[in-house]
Design brief:
Length: 175
């Protein structure tokens, strides 16, 4: 069975996982955030983390789902993890519900969408990609041209390449 989660629940779980991997207490994380100029009280961090537990109360889930974007960025930075890896499920069978009225999506599609590489569900691709910053758009065009050019070069070289025999009979016929 595929688990459906929200970005807030994933963030709460990942915050706890990463903090523990760093062998930090919630007080350590709170101190690090204070050093960075973005103080968040330890009790608030506890409430966020509690919202990621499967046994969390509705109030705790609400707290995890309402983490401010600035807090997500600051906590991710403090923990040394990209925000994308803090809000996208790591379990291959987990699906994230981006909008309550739409179907949940898998983590591969979600990461591509967050990176600006792909639309999500029924978005208009023309509009979606029109919002790319010009320098990024030009870089993608350049990469696309380079790939196309490399493919054309390989095609041009193919007449000079020795064909590789595909079957035993073809191998025997050349002796």
């Amino acid at each position: 069975m595929r688990e459906e989660v929200t970005a807030g629940e994933v963030f709460a779980r990942r915050m706890r996982e990463v903090r523990r991997r760093r062998d930090w207490s919630q007080a350590d994380l709170a101190n690090r955030l204070k050093e960075l100029g973005h103080p968040i009280h330890r009790v608030t961090l506890t409430k966020i983390e509690q919202g990621g537990k499967e046994t969390a109360s509705p109030e705790a889930r609400t707290r995890a789902q309402n983490v401010a974007l600035e807090d997500v960025l600051a906590i991710s930075f403090a923990l040394g993890v990209s925000p994308i890896h803090m809000i996208v499920p790591r379990q291959p069978d987990a699906r994230l519900r981006v909008v309550s009225g739409k179907q949940a999506v898998d983590q591969i599609l979600l990461r591509a969408w967050l990176r600006g590489e792909s639309t999500l569900l029924d978005e208009d691709p023309r509009f979606f990609f029109s919002e790319l910053p010009l320098d990024e758009f030009e870089k993608r065009l350049e990469l696309g041209r380079a790939r196309k050019h490399a493919g054309a070069l390989l095609d041009d070289l193919s007449p000079w390449a020795e064909p590789i025999p595909q079957t035993k009979e073809e191998n025997d016929g050349e002796s």
